[in-house]
Write a structure and sequence with these properties.
By secondary structure, this protein is of the alpha+beta class. Helices cover 31% and strands 20% of the residues. The protein has two domains: 7-242 and 390-452, FAD/NAD(P)-binding domain (3-Layer(bba) Sandwich); 246-385, Succinate dehydrogenase/fumarate reductase flavoprotein, catalytic domain (Flavocytochrome C3, Chain A, domain 1, Alpha-Beta Complex). Helix 1 runs parallel beside helix 5 (134-147) and helix 4 crosses helix 14.
């Protein structure tokens, strides 16, 4: 790399997939990462490692009828038609090739998740790794990147800026080291894979006031670097009010309890012992709903069968091992163990059991009940959390960052939370896996475009 790398990737989360794809295509790649441990700084390592793939070979083998068209329809339904339709189509079409490439070229041990289906996906289309935790994905990608002769890693360091030439094209990456010194590294292409702005309290309060008081459960380096750098180069931005929340983080353990508890038949009550909505609409929007309840907290109620079904998730196992689940042989005992009012809690257990048996409709409109809960019961206290933001720089089908008129900033790409995603506005449009899909999918597409040495101008759809 005597003349500088062909591509500089800022961020070693999903950006590592872009680096590996670019190296596979013959480019010399430099990856810049602020976290020397490759864990705290990115949301991939904190995720449940769910990769949507519409029309993948695993789906075909399982007899699941899926397609990009069906995926786009689900995105459209979940977002109420507010998602960037062009980008949704692009990512839906690359989703299956992406997961197959991750399995075949990167050798990630992916398989189709069929034991339950997340809210909003019409069919099982999420693929994951054993343990269903992103830390193993990051560990695997890091090993692959370190071993690749075409990839160099610069750690710890962060991208401070991107320098452009008189023609507006990228000419260098400006890197800042922990001691404050800076270095300009010549390159013709930069991929901003630095996530969003979830760790910047001021930006969160400005764009996401409804969730600003919640726990931030994301990468500590997600400080809006891409917005700052891209904005300085005249990039268009959109959907800055979009985010992925979560309604199932244990404050006692600091872990993700997981929404599989709900999908398998659990339910959520507030401190008054009452349910307050249809939990299966989605875990992202439920964060703000819990935040609006008394004391901004709730309890997930489950049983031994649900507990055992959720043990496929490392996050849930970590939660259990922390000791925050409480158990009881009946409703009265559970009320005593949790401190919840006994009569409302017993009433909700009886009502949900009747609904699950098909004896009565649910007052909140929930129709997804696997079975009635049975004693012994368990419960765990949860608080709302902000996981990551879903708005950012507008990109085209090549993941190239564009200006407000739709023309690309030559050589500048964005992926994941650095780019505006496909979740529409607010939290309700988030579909499980649609954080990792833009993170890995756009990085994959950016690598291909950088290898071709071109970006394609496309009409710009304003996102704000």
């Amino acid at each position: 790399m005597s003349d500088g790398p062909d591509l500089v990737v800022a961020g070693a989360g999903g950006g590592l997939a872009g680096a590996l794809r670019a190296a596979e295509l013959g480019l010399d790649v430099l990856v810049i990462e602020a976290d020397e441990h490759f864990r705290r700084g990115n949301n991939t390592s904190m995720s449940t490692a769910m990769f949507p793939g519409a029309g993948s070979r695993w789906q075909r083998d399982a007899g699941v009828d899926d397609s990009p068209d069906r995926f786009v329809a689900d995105i459209d339904a979940k977002t109420g038609g507010t998602a960037d339709a062009r980008l949704a189509r692009t990512l839906a079409e690359v989703s299956a090739p992406l997961v197959e490439w991750l399995a075949d070229s990167v050798e990630l041990p992916l398989s189709l998740v069929t034991d339950f289906n997340y809210p909003g996906h019409a069919v099982p289309r999420c693929h994951s790794v054993p343990g269903r935790h992103g830390s193993s994905v990051i560990d695997h990608l890091t090993r692959r990147a370190r071993a690749h002769p075409n990839i160099d890693l610069l750690v710890p360091a962060r991208l401070a800026d991107v320098a452009t030439g008189p023609d507006g094209a990228v000419r260098a990456a400006v890197v800042q080291y922990p001691d404050g010194t800076r270095e300009e590294i010549p390159t013709r292409a930069v991929l901003l894979a630095t996530n969003g702005y979830g760790a910047d309290r001021d930006l969160v309060e400005r764009h996401l006031p409804e969730i600003a008081g919640a726990v931030y459960h994301g990468g500590e380096h997600s400080r809006g670097d891409a917005l700052r750098i891209g904005g300085g180069l005249g990039a268009a931005t959109g959907f800055l009010d979009a985010y992925q929340g979560h309604g199932a983080v244990s404050p006692g353990a600091g872990t993700l309890v997981g929404w599989a508890t709900v999908i398998h038949g659990g339910f959520i009550v507030d401190t008054g012992g009452r349910r307050f909505g249809n939990e299966t609409r989605g875990y992202s929007e439920y964060a703000a709903e819990i935040a609006a309840r008394p004391d901004a907290t709730g309890w997930i109620v489950l049983d031994k069968t649900v507990h055992d079904q959720c043990s496929a998730f490392q996050d849930f196992r970590d939660t259990v091992e922390s000791g925050v689940l409480v158990w009881a042989g009946d409703a009265a005992g559970l009320a005593e163990a949790t401190g919840l009012p006994a009569e409302p809690l017993a009433d909700e257990l009886a009502r949900t059991a009747a609904v699950a048996r098909g004896e009565t409709p649910d007052a909140h409109g929930r129709t997804n009940w696997e079975r009635p809960l049975e004693p012994p019961y368990a419960a765990v206290r949860v608080v709302p959390a902000l996981f990551h933001t879903q708005g950012g720089l507008i990109v085209n089908e090549d993941a190239a960052v564009v200006r407000p008129d739709g023309t690309p900033i030559t050589g500048l790409y964005a992926s994941g939370g650095a780019a505006a995603g496909i979740s529409g506005h607010g939290a309700a449009g988030y579909l499980p896996g649609n954080g990792l899909l833009p993170a890995f999918g756009l990085a994959y597409l950016a690598a291909g475009a950088a290898a071709r040495g071109r970006t394609a101008p496309t009409p710009h759809n304003e996102g704000e």
